[in-house]
């Protein structure tokens, strides 16, 4: 229940629906109990039995005696009518029963009607909250998580919480009230018989509760395995070309079948334990009814302290307890199952982001002088990727970072954009520590073009507008022209309104990269970060993209991470990195003259080409 206390906060905006649900559930429970009591006058007429006759019309004496007033009034009118017109009395009793069952079901409908808004509202807000958390958590969080597991949490686990949420409301309001009102009326008919019944109810409850003890553990295993096979599906779709190219279909098929087999076993154990609840509770309920028949029958036939009509109505009331008792039993199992889902959902929602904006974080709207990287050190896990690294990038200058893979080039880009925080040292913009700036305002100053062209299953127009939602079509066309992308976009069937497919896979690598550049151009940031933007392209595409990059970098501060050294010869400063430290720095000409690491890299690439 601890997890559901946290989930309950999502119900606060929908509390009016919860209140209306409770009100109608109260009336449902009341009419449900009264409907069985209403059988007594009908049975009296049928069996020619009469209660103690109320000879004078009862008078209302206040709220405390309203129950007795209703009962005496009904007895007075029924007995009076029965003396002259038994069929009329029978019809009156039947009408009363039908009316009470009608009111009961109307209240049930409205209770379910209002709970629907609460359930679906909580479902919507939970998913929105998880999605918001996913987009705000640092990249490091997801490097340790499977995507499929995260998808399972936002879909199946949240759905499980929704189902359990309804069960809790039934557990708290409708079913307990139905039992309470029924028990009150049972005491009113026969205190002795009711006390006798209560000896056996705790025994039944204890047996039922023992069945659900392990449900949370079993449910948790089912949900984790569901995340596992969804991850395999996600990885398969993302790497289908490689799987087919290396004929690895059977390997992945085996992995998937192993996961679904585990899911099959875990689900069978969970559902079989859950399915045991209903027949067990029904059998125990019938056993209690059998005991009532024996003891109550003795009171009617031998002791003659209970009328036959009252005893039959009492049996109906006793059976009326079984349905809500079974519902409570199922709800308690559902809560245990949902508790496991809530734990998995709240693990994401309660994860604190180490990159949260500071309470006094500033908004920065312009870039005036320089980017300063001062003695920074950083490690992803145990080994340092950067060691006491320092660099000054004046406004309007382009700085290129080169070096072997793993030397820390891309890490610089990740730290400047604050996808990660430095372990030691400081990164400043215009002498302001970026940790003291709002992340959104920091990233609005920057444009990013990565080696992998990350595009979305949408139109070209919407992909490019990502950094500037209010951009006009003319601005989009200008950005496409600067990025050398308009030449191929204008030949597409719907131009900028053409859908480019999942990850932009309807386009070539060069075309995708030029759209990524156009997206950065349209944003028009003062700082541009290019992370190996041409390394995955063929020679012709590289020439077009490089031309687009040079246009884009004019009069702009740029950090260029390059694998192909031919693309950064015009940079104002080239930093040669080796194992997280600066090996050399200078212009292209200066570095060649030094006859050091940079010259060796250039000569190696000439040989490779």
From TrEMBL:
Listed PROSITE patterns: ABC_TM1F, ABC_TRANSPORTER_1, ABC_TRANSPORTER_2
UniProt keyword annotations, A-Z: ATP-binding, Membrane, Nucleotide-binding, Transmembrane, Transmembrane helix
Short name of one Pfam family: ABC_membrane
Top-rank taxon: Bacteria
Residue span, ABC transporter domain: 371-604
Location(s), subcellular: Cell membrane
Keyword Transmembrane helix: yes
Gene3D superfamilies: ABC transporter type 1, transmembrane domain (1.20.1560.10), P-loop containing nucleotide triphosphate hydrolases (3.40.50.300)
Name of the protein this chain belongs to: ABC transporter ATP-binding protein
